[in-house]
User: What shape does this take?
Amino acid sequence: MKLYNSLTKQKEEFKPIKKGEVGLYTCGPTVYNFAHIGNLRTYIFEDILKRTLILAGYKVNHIMNVTDVGHLVSDADTGEDKMELGAKREGKSAWDIAKQYEKKFFEDFKALNCLMPNKTPKATDHIEDMISLIKILEKKGFVYKTSDGLYFDTSKYKNYHALMGKKNFEGLKEGARVEVNKEKKQSMDFALWKFSANGEKRQMEWESPWGVGFPGWHLECSAMAEKYLGKTIDIHCGGIDHVSVHHTNEMAQSECANNTPLANFWIHGEFLVIPSGKMSKSSGTFLTLDELIKKGYTPFDYRYLCLTAHYRTQLEFTFDSLDFARTSLKSLKQKIAGLDEGGESKGDISKYKKAFEDACFNDLNTSKALSLVWDILKDKEISSYNKLEFIKFADTVFGLNLLTKDVKKEEEISSEIKELLEKRAQARKDKDFKTSDILRDELKQKGILVKDTSSGQTWEKI
Ligand code: AMP
Ligand code: ZN
Assistant: This one.
């Protein structure tokens, strides 16, 4: 399997540390607001990666953290903690905000059919682990103290530019001339521990050997990745914005503390953008999954849309593109629902399976993989039964529930339609084809398309 590694900036053959097993760490949500559909694109890409690894036969140990403290408004470690910001916005405690949005996040995550991680540890449950990590870094001389916290001295880590690349690193240095915190030695230095301001009692704060305060955002992932997956992990993922700040800083801390690479593969998903630019929580320009559902789309329509684009290309979100995804998915599911489940096995699907694996194992080429499902549906040499076998196989990666008949539609039809459908099914059972044809036409006029399959009558809205 080949995957693009942000560290080496090329596609590489994936090899795990331990044969047959993969340690996967994906950076999780900051639970101070709803996840927007941009965030959700990243979780969908990570889910496709995980499902592809499972298809390749790996046992995946997946850890995804929940950031419930320490993520400040500015990447330069200034401004308010996002949790406290959420608390003020809604007049609740920071702890309640975290609980509320964590719950909502996992509802969205499951609605999108993303496989649950093995563990979803929270930053606030790992303060001791983070303090231990700072102690190691302090002993090794990477830490200095300012009036507002403890900072990591990036000049002492020669590989600091590794993820973002030398050019971006120079650009970052150039762009950071105006530094808010004058006590920092370098503009790139980042907080490991921030002190609670003098005389101020924060909602989330802890004792530490250096003073009362809270951990820096990057520290939690270094501490939890090590705790649950070991000092070097196979794959570390996140959105593309993490390359130059969050992941660069995680890497600096972990590698200086442990003298080993934090991750062998770093994989990043590109952004979902809107025609007016970036979708972001802080600017308020964002759409949630609930908003899509309210407009009549399903989470699977959005998942399908994400699969049509490669994870390393930007995806511009418009309602036209979502409409297109919805129509395509609906038509695909209709075609699949019309396949005869009980028929004969005819035609070789191994070439389709091979092409599917080639696409997925070539850096997750989901659009190519999707096109194979459309191709096999058109293939006259392959029987329905075998087509279904291939689709079942492919859907272990897509996670689109292609073989599931939409149960929700049952609730959406009137009792009159329900009665007509029952009458027609009975007429067919009685071999009264004249009546069943009349009822089929009547249903069609009422917007219901009826089909007969070997497993009985199916229907859909026209
Ligand atoms: P956050 O909850 O802000 O910590 O972000 C959660 C995940 O969403 C991270 O992996 C980010 O890199 C990713 N992310 C943020 N904005 C976008 C976007 N517009 N498109 C795709 N991923 C994003
Ligand atoms: Zn992280």
Remarks:
- Residues 27, 29-30, 38-39, 41-42, 67, 238-239, 241-242, 271-272, 279 surround adenosine monophosphate (ligand 1) (CB under 6 Å).
- The radius of gyration is 26 Å.
- The chain has 16 helices and 15 strands.
